[in-house]
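Need tokens for this chain, all 335 residues.
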Amino acid sequence: MAESFAEQRLSRYTEACKSVKAFRSVLQEAAGSLRKANGNLPLIVAIDELDRCRPSYAVELLEVAKHLFAVDHIVFVLAVNCEQLAHAVRALYGNGFDAEGYLRRFFDVDCQLPEPSRDAFIQAQLQATGIDDYFDCTPATKSYFAETYFQKELKRERAGETMHEMLSMFFNASDVSLRTVSQAIHRLGLLYASLRGDHEDYGVTTTVALILRTFDRSLYNRFVTGEASDREVVDAFFDHPTRAPRRQEDCSIQFEAVIILAALEDNISTMSSTETVRSPLLDWYRGDGKSQIANRVVAAVDRAIVDGGAEIGFRQAVRRLELVSASLIENGPDP
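Here are the structure tokens for all 335 residues:
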């Protein structure tokens, strides 16, 4: 019985070896034909994001590429995060496994791509989505949008510049991936593409909501529902060890002012100045009169209230962001 089983296993192994040999022979012949037809260039197989695959799948694919496709005139190019791929190997073989040594078996040459300019990437994403078109102050578009406080204060072109500055400042943070940046900006582009001509755009306000949503979805949800204060939001951003933006910049002052006004949006229309407005962040800044940042934030909020801060449109911005994200927050019907 054991002898018969061994013979069956040996027969299957022999057949498998013949199949692999036949496959590689046909593959090499095809690669050779392609090389002759394309100026002596090899067939290049590109594999991207293997490090994001299931560990067993990633290792199996490497084994197949190494042994089954190892023929002349075929080159495999893998774009991977080697550190993450090593984690995948250890997940399969154990934490004590020499993952780096194992991976060197598969790569003949490796190189590290330079870190891209995050600011250039952000600007390219903004251009690709066509968001800038909505801030083009031309006669054909200017009348489409109500002059809210931030459009009165900054004018339409300046609102677009502030949006750029905010996105660049916050999304240049080291703990935000380029994939996350791209998804966030495309979400913003989808929002603008869905606006009718008679809808207010709330450019700066929407940008603040998007930044908060992108960095900390839980905090964003709690702030929208009134469970988190304006000070909690600002502290989370400006006291963060890796993503703290330059607090003295104009767009940072505008960011804080929007957060304060958003927290007070339901009651702010009946108020005439910051003397009658109370919020944790505003109260904190009132007691910090020696700070230039505190004075500038309070002044920005005060101007907004006097000039019609109720038109900040934070809740509308949130509803629209959630509509294009297929997860509308139930906080009243969208206008």
